[in-house]
Amino acid sequence: MSFDKLHKEAEGVLLEEAGRISKQFEITSEKLHELTHYFIDQMDVGLNAAATREERGLPMCPSYVTGTPNGTETGTFLAAELGGTNFRVYSVKLNGDHTYEIEQLKSKIPEELLDEPTLSSADLFSYMARRTKVFMHKYHPEVFEKGYGKSLKLGFTFSYPVDQNSLNSGTLLRWTKGFNIKDAVGSDVVQLYQDQLDDLGLDMINIVALTNDTIGTFLSLCYSSGSPESIKKGEISQPVIGAIFGTGTNGCYMEKVTNIGKLSEETREKLINEGKEEMCINTEWGSFDNDLKYLPTTKYDIDIDQKFSNNPGYHLFEKRVAGMFLGEILRNVLVDLHDRHLILNQFRTHDQLPHRLKTPFELSSDVMARIEIDDSSTLRETELSFLQRLRLPTTFSERKAIQMIVRAISRRSAYLAAVPMAAILIKTGVLNKRYHGEVEIGCHGAIFEFYPGFRTMLREGLALTPIGSDGERKIHLRLTKNSSGVGSALCALVA
Ligand code: BGC
Prior knowledge:
Low-confidence stretches: none
Number of helices: 19
CATH topology of the domain at 75-215 and 486-494: Nucleotidyltransferase, domain 5
CATH architecture of the domain at 75-215 and 486-494: 2-Layer Sandwich
Bound molecules: beta-D-glucopyranose
């Protein structure tokens, strides 16, 4: 057989295999229905189960946030946020007219603090205190001169699952995303941070509220919604869900206190007597279906969870949806295709593959984003991305195969992302309660904001869930900016 013919045949086999793999990522409407019903079921289980570090299913963490802002709130507050990629410190001035002014210091979390089992919580929290000090020197140097007592209120957004017993304390249930600092698990994260602030002479800062980024997103949308400007733009002001699609994924909504069986009877009664009938629940939906009853699962998902993630068996929904994992899924597929001699055959053995392709979590979702929208006839963007980011030359048919797989991975992520939204809308019944049933969902995170086509695919997914296209049309997905800063400030205000 001629070399040319052999080559053509190999190309055909690769594209066929890429098609077969992509098929494994497809999600039907039936699947979305099944998942949505199971999600509703798991919400009820979670609302009534005790929060433990070993729990399965939906954690449904009470947040002790019992009201929503209406945009008239005023005051200046400090806020800090530990996410999966960045640590941010803010000061936020709420103007009371749905607007705010914000100063911010964003620091990329140093690699050595991530996924390093020998570290102690003091290493992480002292880093955070040092960055807080830098922020204070830059934006509020006056506090070092005058006697401020303990008067500077700080709201702390901590984007990991915690068991909260009050607005200003909570113990870490487990790390997700990149961290792996063992002694922090089971500790009160507010205390850990406050101790380090005090040690650095920042004892004028008083951490008065602990919250999750998803709650921050929700509250900040409540604060900015309904402004004269947004009403002029035809926006409505009925936020129902705060959602994150970034490094990780999560969502929250307001639940009736009477439905939160995991709160003690005493707490529920006290809240109701105080007129607090609802509480924001941090669903921690990243942990949906950890038992893998219904979640679609490929062998790549299993490998990522078991071999490469630092929390095997947990957050399995997040591992199919969130930004941290999308590139990793692609990397696993590519390595598998290479091991089977179907792609990148210039590297004869696994060891010869470029470092970036061999190293877990080195292929990031922004490489996928460039490939996703590459509509050039030679897939030039794809070629450049692989050259620049992985030092990998590719053939045209390899690029076609890669793009097919990228698009399958991202579509699965967006369709799955529709499940918790549809489930919460059904459980709360809001689509039928309100005028025209229109609802707002606040969304935050790089995947939602920047991944090409994610929002469109998410909407397609919503229409395929039990809410159907009628329900999907009533949903307004709002991108929230600065949501953790504003959200924590709002929490600090009510503390
Ligand atoms: C965490 C959540 C967080 C989400 C988005 C997840 O890994 O468990 O607490 O809200 O990431 O940052």
